[in-house]
Every structure is written in structure tokens, then in C-alpha cells.
Amino acid sequence: MAKLINGKEIAEQVKLETRDRAQALREKGIEVTLAVVQVGQDPASCVYVRNKKKACEVCGILSKSIELPEETTMDELMQVVRDLNEDPSVNGILVQLPLPAHLDESAVIRAIDPKKDVDGFHPESVGKLSLGLPGFESCTPAGVIQLLKRSGVVCEGKECVIVGRSNIVGKPMGMMMLRENATVTIAHSRTQNLKEVCRRADILIIAIGKARFITADYIKPGAVVIDCGINRDENGKLCGDTDFDQVSAVADAITPVPGGVGPMTVAMLMKNCVDSAEL
User: Fold this and answer.
1) Which of 47, 70, 165, 273 could form a disulfide linkage to 170, CB 3.0–4.6 angstroms apart?
2) What per-residue confidence (pLDDT) applies to 250?
3) 210 is catalytic
């Protein structure tokens, strides 16, 4: 049976470290503030925003909530972003995705001041990551790196396969694993012989959004498996992109869903907010 990589515990460590740094700033008269912009009342987004507000409380970070109606226009949303960019009391800006279909997500992300881009989605942040320069990193892949490091998993020299090529997880994950001196393959929906590619991996990171897609025959015995997926199965139960029972019988270590990568994403967002305030 695979060792469980406990994202809840590791996320608590990160949040406590972040709380200490926020307290040190407060003693210098600096309040760390995160502005969260939500358009509409998408149920999943409401849960995510609530979790982020709770994490702010734990970390001693002020949470400024801007809730806009579903019918908000692009001009109105862009004005909100501009106002937050110019507000010296705000260190981090997060626009909760997905936005309603009539709004241009890419334009909104580009409008955020890169110095306040705590989600790590702005082209400037992505460019700095690709060039190996310091900057804000996308929270989910940054959380995966912390999970691996704090669980004693050595990445250097290992073969890492990432299944999924999104701008939010797959692509930045590949760059971060290269930075850790892993040998990286990014696989996706058009990859031929996907099972064979995955079975090469010492570290397999999955982010495809398909419930229980990865089964035991994708796994090299003794591999470390990081599941970034969050889905609901036919019974409405939360599950990842891996078939946990099957995969945990073959892997050496695995993240559960829930309780694995998810808590780390929020913890790294808090860390990015304090980084922004310190800068």
C-alpha cells in the first residue's frame, strides 16, 4: 500500500509559516491584504472563495471581497481591476475563475498589475518562470513542488511525466520540475501510447479533469503519484483523476483527493500574498 502524502498537514505547515511572516509585517505597520473578485454565484467558485477567506483568517491576512452580479460588463470588471491595481492597501488581486461566458478571462488576467498577480497567471509571471527569474508562481504546481520536497521526494535526475498541458497546471508544472532537475515529459489527449509513457515515470503528475482515468496499468511500480484532479463520480462523491484504490496498490506514494493537492493550492496563494507585501 502506498504512503499517503498528506496535503492538509503540509498546507497547515505552509500557512503557519506564512502567518508568522504576516505577523512580522504587521509589527512594521504593514497589513497584508488580498482582494478577491467574484462575478456571479457559480457554486464551485463560492466554495473556493469561502476556503480562501478562511485561509486568510488563519494566516493573518485581510480579505477584501468584491462580489459582482452575473451580468457585470467587461468595462465594469476592468474598472474594478484598475481600482484595485491603484489601491496601495491591496497586495494581491485574485479574480475567481471561471468567469461568466460573456467576459474575456485572458484580458482580465492581463489587466492585473503583475506586482499583485498572486495567482501567477499574468504573462509576465509566466515569462519569469520560463526564464528562471523570481516572480509569482501558479499556486497548484507550486504546491505540488512543496508536497514533493516536504515529503522527502527527490526530483533531481528522476523521470517525471505530467498528464495535462493547461496554462494553470500542466505547462508551469513542467517548467518547475525542470527547475528541480527532473527529466520532464508533458503528455496530453493526443499523446500516443499514453500508458507506456506514464509507466516510464518515477514521478507521475496528473491534471486532466477525468474522474478515475488513471488506473494501475499506467503506473510504474514504486512511482510517486500526484493527483491534481478534482471531480465528482457518478454518486456525486469527490474523486481525483486516478483510481485511488488501484493506483495506491502499485505506487510508492500518492496524494488523496480530497486532502492532497487542493489544500496546497490555497496555502501557496497565501504565501504569494505575503511575498507581494514583502516586495
Assistant:
1) 165
2) 97
3) no
- With bands split at pLDDT 50, 70 and 90, how would you rate the model's confidence at 217? very high
* Catalytic member of 15, 38, 96, 227: 96
Task: Provide the pLDDT for residue 45.
Answer: 85
Residues in Cβ contact with 119 at an 8 Å cutoff, skipping those fewer than 6 apart: 94, 95, 109, 136, 138, 139, 269, 272
For the domain spanning 139-261, the CATH number is: 3.40.50.720
Instruction: Say which of 117, 119, 241, 275 is annotated catalytic.
Output: 119
Residues of the chain with CATH 3.40.50.720: 139-261
Query: What share of the chain has pLDDT > 90, as a percent?
Result: 94
Catalytic residue among 15, 52, 116, 271: 52
Q: Is 53 a catalytic residue?
A: no
Long-range contact pairs involving 78-85 (C-beta distance under 8 Å, separation at least 24): 78/107, 78/108, 78/111, 80/37, 81/37, 81/108, 81/111, 81/112, 82/111, 84/35, 84/37, 84/116, 85/111, 85/112, 85/113, 85/116
The ranges of the chain annotated as CATH 3.40.50.10860 are 29-134
Looking at the domain that runs over 29-134, which CATH code has it been given?
3.40.50.10860
Give the pLDDT confidence score for residue 53 in this predicted structure.
93
* Catalytic residue check, 20: no
